[in-house]
Amino acid sequence: MGRLTFKTVIFMEKLLSLGRLPKSFRTRGAIAPSSYRLCVELACLATNADHILELGAGTGAVTRALSRLVGVRSFHAVELQEKLAHDLKLKFPGVHVHNCSADVALDRYPPHGSVAVVSSLPFRSLPGGIRNSIVKSVLRFLLASPQSRFIQFTYGFREPFAVGSEFQWKRVKWIFANLPPACIWVLTKTELAHE
Ligand SMILES: C[S@@+](CC[C@H](N)C(=O)[O-])C[C@H]1O[C@@H](n2cnc3c(N)ncnc32)[C@H](O)[C@@H]1O
Fold first, then answer.
1. Is the whole-model pTM more than 0.85?
2. Which atom of ligand 1 is nearest to the CA of 32?
């Protein structure tokens, strides 16, 4: 990583951990849409899943890459902001778009087959209450559906959130062609990680 991008990552990490960002940024969690490279890498990790559940679909950059995957039996996308959710419905008529919070969508999702949960949620900057609620829902989801995986990117060096020993994070790769550079992580139930 070049010196400038390295510094950018540390700076972002500090701001996010100190909560020194405007509330709108803390929910949005990004200064630019996800890059093409990042979206393609996220979609690759969702290959072979029976179903896709995208969390924090935003303007649809990741949605577009995911919608190109073949053999997916269902694709649900979740976005909290009403206007963005409305636009996603128009842009992606084949995707079931839900205008609700990610924890609500996860709790409602019936466990069936393998699900790739692809998240752009800004865990490091989300307000504590909602963050904890989403983390609990993600872990409950993986316990109920152990063949599923949770795919997340962050702008920091640490895993997106702490988990107990029944779950395992795997750091997949850094994507430098993104502003700021992003690191992709995959969370699974531990048994699967050892197979
Ligand atoms: C990093 S941005 C979206 C990135 C998206 N991949 C893109 O490039 O446009 C994160 C998104 O998560 C949404 N979000 C934040 N909190 C959420 C929640 N609790 N449930 C669902 N979506 C949420 C925000 O509204 C925002 O659109």
1. yes
2. 8
